[in-house]
Amino acid sequence: MNITFLLMAQYGGKAIIPVEQACQDYFTHLSANKLIQKLSLGEIPIPLVRMEASQKCAKGIYLVDLANYLDGRIDAARKELDTMSR
Fold first, then answer.
1. Which of 31, 39, 58, 62 could link 48 by a cystine bridge, Cβ 3.0 to 4.6 Å?
2. Is 3 helix (H, G, I), strand (E, B) or coil?
3. Where are the beta strands (DSSP E) in the chain?
4. Distance (Å, rounded) from C-alpha 47 to C-alpha 22?
5. Radius of gyration of the chain (CA)
6. Cα–Cα distances in Å, from 49 out to 12, 75, 76, 84?
7. How far apart are CA 72 and CA 66, in angstroms?
8. What is the pTM of this model?
9. CA 57, 62, 68, 74 torsion: positive or negative?
């Protein structure tokens, strides 16, 4: 199953997901401000999309970038399980 299509359905076909929504859905352990900080520092390897050059502008995550990140986390979990199963 392609996670990109699942995210497209979840977010109604939006290309850019607001940081607050992605935080609520996938980074529940973080506040939106903390997620923005981690994205900006590269601690979470997803590009942060700024709608303007302003610090106060709307910020989001490109749906395909989120899908790729989630795919990577799923792959890491599977590898961890394989290691533990041996």
1. 39
2. helix
3. 16-18, 49-50, 59-62
4. 13
5. 14
6. 19, 25, 25, 37
7. 10
8. 0.91
9. positive
Asked whether the predicted pLDDT for residue 1 surpasses 90, the reply is no
Cα–Cα distance, 46 to 67 (Å, whole number): 10
Distance, in Å, from the CA atom of 2 to the CA atom of 85, rounded to the nearest integer, reads 26
Three-class SS state of 16 = strand
Residues 63 and 14: their CA atoms lie apart, in Å, by 7
Instruction: Round to whole Å and give the CA distance between 41 and 86.
Output: 36
* Token pair 């199963």 in the structure block, residue: 85
27: number of Cβ within 10 Å:
17
Close Cβ partners of 51 (under 8 Å, ≥ 6 residues apart)? 57, 58, 59, 60
- Backbone φ and ψ for 22, nearest 5 degrees, come out as -60, -40
Residue type at 55? Q
